[in-house]
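HOLO CASE FILE
Compound: adenosine-5'-diphosphate
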Amino acid sequence: MSDYEAVIGLEVHVHLATKSKLFCSCPNSFGDAPNTNVCEICAGMPGVLPSLNRKAVEYAARMALAVDAEINRHSRFARKNYFYPDMPKDYQISQFEEPLCEHGRLDISVAGKSKRIGITRIHMEDDAGKNIHPQGERISLVDLNRAGTPLIEIVSDPDMSSAEEAVAYLKALHAMVVSLGISNGNMEEGSFRCDANVSIRPRGSRTLGTRTELKNLNSFRHVQKAIEYEISRQSDLLEDGEKVVQETRLYDAARNITLAMRGKEDAQDYRYFPDPDLVPVDISEEELAGWKETQPELPQARLARFMKEWKLPEADAVLLAADPHLAALFENAVRLYPESRKIANLMLGPLLRQINEQGLDSAGLKLSPEALAELARIIDSGLISAKIGAEIFPELMRGGVMPEDYVKTHGLAQVSDSGAIEAAVRKVVEANPAEAEAYRGGKTKLISFFVGQVMREMRGKANPAVVNEILARLLGS
Ligand code: ADP
Ligand code: MG
Ligand code: ZN
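Model generated. Tokens follow.
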């Protein structure tokens, strides 16, 4: 691979979180019973008139503002003609020659090095429905609930040169769309989907190599794996004197390979033309100024603020600042108990662990800032140990439970009473005379053995500082 460098450009589809669909008033929601959110317009009946959802324009423009793109005050919808069973109109309404925005950029950082990625264009389009192929049955079903829901497509310049850069770019975009509140960013539900275009060329060359387009990448991990696989597949081809064929390839996650799906010969002529049913999209000066003024805080700005205002190390601040829900929980808790590092540690440790293990959505957490702040406070005050704090975390995440009350009613409060601890220490020292002798003879590492024994004796509730102090005194010669 050392003789080649990779070139990667991404096409990202973001499902916009508007209440209704792009050209009709059907609900734009996920997971409802099939074909319940459908009307004549999104079912593609002849003779109907679509009308544009203005909120979708605002959301697309907010994305453009976030990446410093030029917003075309006059843009147009075009019909992209092709047949697919889940698209009854037989054309997708998209933007072609006059997209809403062009020429944006996004700065990413990989291994401490920052790099600017160009954004070619951002355009609006409607989504198709969904074909369902039930296992073992010789039928296919069509669900049109998703048909006509709003998307933006964000097309990058071919500016990335490794899988890591592609993932960093995607993560930065993802943090942006959720911070802007324009999408829930749910990758499993397809609300944030990515196609990766990958080619390689001799290192230092200025011309682009033949690219393949990778589909079906529904997690950051799959993006990483698929691009890595594709780079090595293409370099093997070139090293063997063969050629890369321009084609669309599917990523098979189970086997961690990419497979040819369709070649360039099948490439369609979409016969784009301006949609005669839709008036051009005009954005007024006032409208644009209003959106600019009310842009929410973006992850990059929040990151800088978290480091400065709350004195968080960068690695911690990145994780909290990327997610607006976690960021709000953090700041609300810190306002109640201003030990920012300790609140952050509870979030990056026990909280993220629970979120990952239970596959939770940070938008719907039941953990209150009050409970989080109180937990940090009672660990600090010595009422409970950090270990017990982590153990009761799942309880707090059910909501409605306050930590101080919970540890008291469940007998989890830490024992700091030196009388009780001293009794336990004496018992342990007497039960382990050989270890006590060795400790006094200089094997001071044995201290952790004694601490462990005392903790066991006291069912994990002894204050470790007091245990250490009494052990030192009683073991000391
Ligand atoms: P299409 O619409 O047919 O997919 P585009 O020209 O719009 O083609 O390109 C789509 C994406 O592919 C863009 O993100 C672009 O940066 C990327 N791209 C184009 N050429 C290459 C190449 N040779 N290697 C890698 N990425 C490329
Ligand atoms: Mg493409
Ligand atoms: Zn509809």
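CASE NOTES: The longest strand covers residues 113-126. The chain has a mean pLDDT of 91.
CLOSED: yes
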